[in-house]
TrEMBL record:
Keywords: Cell outer membrane, Membrane, Receptor, TonB box, Transmembrane, Transmembrane beta strand, Transport. It is found in: Cell outer membrane. The keyword Transport applies. Belongs to the TonB-dependent receptor family. Residues 1-22, 376-395 are annotated as: Disordered. Residues 48-139 form the TonB-dependent receptor plug domain. PANTHER family: PLUG DOMAIN-CONTAINING PROTEIN, TONB-DEPENDENT RECEPTOR-LIKE BETA-BARREL DOMAIN-CONTAINING PROTEIN. It is a multi-pass membrane protein. It comes from Undibacterium baiyunense. This is TonB-dependent receptor.
Amino acid sequence: MQNNTVNTKLEKNDGKETQNVNQLQKVTVNGNKQSDLDLRRNSIAGKIVVGREELDRDGDFTVGEILKRLPGVTTGGRPGRGGDVRMRGMGGGYTQILVNGERPPRGFSMESLSPDQVERIEVMRGPVAEFSTQAIAGTINIILREEFHPKDIDVKLALGLEQGRVAPNLSVTYPGQIGDFNYVFSGSVFRNGQRDYSNALRVEQSDDGIIQLVQDQIDQTKRQSTGIHLTPRLSYKLENGDNLTVQPFLMSSRSQSNSHSQISQTPELLDPITLRAPVALANSQSHSDSTMMRLNANYQHRFEDTSKLTLRAGVSSGRADSDSLRTQFAKNGEQLNLISDVNNTRDTGLSFGGKYTTPIGDKQNLAAGWDMERSQREQKRVSLDNGKPQFTESGDNLEASTRRLAAYIQTEIDLSTQWSGYAGIRWEGIQTHSSKANYVVDNSTSVISPIVHAVYRIPDFGKDQIRMSLTNSYRAPALNDVIAVPAISPLNGPTRPDRSGNPDLKPELSRGIDIAYEHYLKSAGIMSVNLFVKEIDDLIRRRTELVKTGNDYRWLNSPINIGRAIAKGVELEAKFQLQEFFPQVPAIDVRTNYSRFWSSVDDVKGPNNRLDQQPSQTANFGLDYRVSGLPLTLGGNWNWTPAYVNQISDTQLLSIGIKRQVDVYALWKFSPNFKIRLAANNLQANDYLSGNSLTINNVNYLQNNRSRTFTVFNLRLELKI
């Protein structure tokens, strides 16, 4: 609040009037920042905002651990090891990941990004024209640290503990201001060690019930990794009010692992090609080193009529080098194979875009913009088995590039006190190019996506509102899915095939409808229900078949377009303070959500012909308890995804076991500037189960996998200077 005193008094002096400043005038300036719920409610397109308070609450090591608690969000892989983040139960690739509104470079991993480097996360259920519409399931936009508090230096030291292995993590945020120049230097360094245990049981059985093979494999892996993340941000305000922001971003990590495998077969079958004895023991060592750098620049110019022009540019560079050596032995100790794999990848990228925003009257805003992006990959991979190439192109230089061009226009308008609307249209053109020693493949596609969102604020119902959306979106094949360099499986088989791309893939196209009801409570709380239906054309599925590679035959898994699919679901959410309903109870905040999903794929016979990797449902339940009379908060969260089965094709079935994860934490605030947080993630540490069944030529190949999971303890000290 700012008070200005101005006194004015009229007096007569020798017949003349003189003016003295003596009148009191009060001017009030409010600069309150919108809460996460305010940002959510005021957005016409439906989204969930996760701010610093929620990011800090549970003391998570990764952003993925936070996102898995949100409505309709699931993660692939076993608990405690992370995996790709998925919205609405859809598999990998359907959810768009952005960093500061832009596509991150290849090699970016949300699981390796520390929450300390993030200001907030926006989870958008429906696409908007401003961002790429490559978001059939939705978009997760990660906004890196951007606030400046010249007097606050944040220092956070975390010590993780898993199976007796200590994982330190140090994060520092140093902000400041020199005149019109603002800066914040943020960075973190980490080191961790992990040990994994897994068991794979493979059974081959003919249609007449005769078991042809039983193979039991036990794998043990030790892994160590170190890394550094730097996310500084520099901002300068020019004399005319324009603003220039520069934000570098660096992620660098190095890891090494050793694994030991024991394999038993009944009966012991010779390799049908080489006539060698089966592998009974294997030892592997691998190293990887990766660095990803990106530099973003953003320039804003405001016109006198409050219009605004934003220009942004970005350059990126990344490298990934890895090598592995696997030695395989027979039961009698004879060395059978020495398999080496060396992979060197270089990525570069360039992006440029702009956005012009102008008001039309008092109730409408119009925006138009464009995006250009070019990325290129150079890769050389040498895979040798006893000195001989494992695939035809081993050692060849691969070049692949993607060029994207997009233009859009969108408008937001307040039609009345109750109605607000959004309409936009976006055109995107994508060109891919890949070349090897023996062929060149070029592919070009374009997509037009009209989008409509509307919000109806219900009269006499407080802040309650109804959301409606009609959207078009798409899913472009990943670059690795359109280039045919295979990923080699050391123990190649129908349930462990090599993986390759398909240069002829077309993008999936989707049309969708969303309807949501949001009930905002008097305190900081919300209850909502969201319904959605998605229709997808040219669905991409991966198929496994036996193919000839040189003089050998190998099992290969590659993607193809198969047809049409329908996905639908309901997402329920409730966040509230328990005292709002029961004033006499302790100060407990409740966080809970439940999602139910259905889908069907036309060209695959049922039952269970759902979208790949889509569970039938998922749920979360969390509590935060502020202890009376003490600066102590206790809390926890229960995350549940039941077991499910997916019919991938008429001959292949995948199964995923139940996932139950319990996380708890305790936070003690010694002072506003010093906190200690103790957290335990994955308390139950249940084994993670998965299965793969494939039937070819009257033989059923079945593999069941069991992987151990572990509880991770985390002690975090947070200090503001």
